[in-house]
Design goal:
eight-stranded parallel sheet, 11 strands, alpha/beta, TIM Barrel, three-stranded antiparallel sheet, 372 residues
Length: 372
Amino acid sequence: MINGYPIYDADAHVNVAPPMWDDLPKEFAARRPRPALVHDGAELAAFTAGWLVDGRMEPHALGPGLQPANPPRWVVEGADRGSLTMVDADARIRDLNRLGIDIQLLFPSTLYARWTADPRFEAALFRAFNRFIARQTRPHSKRLKWAGLIPLREPRESIVALEEMIKLGASAAVVFGTARDKMLCDESFNDFWDEFARCKLPLCVHMAASFPAFDSCVETFLDAHALSMALPAQMALVALLGHGMMDRYPELRIAFMEFGAEWLFYMVGRIDHYIPRDREIQPRILEAKMPAKTMKAYLNSGRFFICGEMEDPLMKEEISLLGEDQLLFSSDYPHGEGRENAAQELLARTDISARQKQKILYDNPIRLFGEV
């Protein structure tokens, strides 16, 4: 609690650690991500380590597919590794107490979007993470919640993973903006979405450089933040709202995490501008893939949520666009964007009412993820 406000941190993270692979199936154990050090890395700044998996280093700081992320040296050797990786859940609780956070929802590292092109190996890694985080949070289940990874690209495993994570106590399911080169509305995922709609869990779409085709366009960290790590949000919005998934599944609740919120103005305005004209001129066979409503109507449905930045100068306009019950607070702890004081930044604002602050900091996450 901070200044009398209870705090529900709707997006925090668990950095990668070797114990996450402890129960990988035997056929994949030897392929597990391994911490690797670069011994002649003077040109690599702080990125002189990475996770070696399937012959590729993640993260890497130069070359196609580069991105800023937490390399293993920071979390395997660091003094705070127990909390950062959730290997020591008691240490994470101490951090929550220090930060004034009452409840925290934990997401995996965004590196999970990029581990492997092999769908079966990816499914094994995803499910191993889900089991790991379920074990680690169990002693503190009132305060530490978690989102389970869905291996969409392996259809049979995706449904088994969903059933498993529900039994283990997941508060949400998480996907990235694309399932590598496939849109989230790809027809091969239909059986999973039918099953998912029956389980009533919220769906979180988390920021990650999930679409491999962007790799060749990315030469700097700026490129990564502006392109490969950002544009999958727009692809997911088109897939989930633009392809009628909120019509097909009328109880589906969706949250976009760590993409910011300003981009919604562009996408909603552009899509809603073109929908009427597209219907007039496109082949009628495409109508089945079109949404029944405008994008603005879906955003106002009470089923669309988003984590914005607490210092966002457009927050008042975002509340007008979405409604005051749809914005979520997140710290992104323990990542390096400097959001540890995000709640204080929101509380210091004079353009947001006390009621709206209460909703963003606690009530809205409770509406989405359920009572404690």
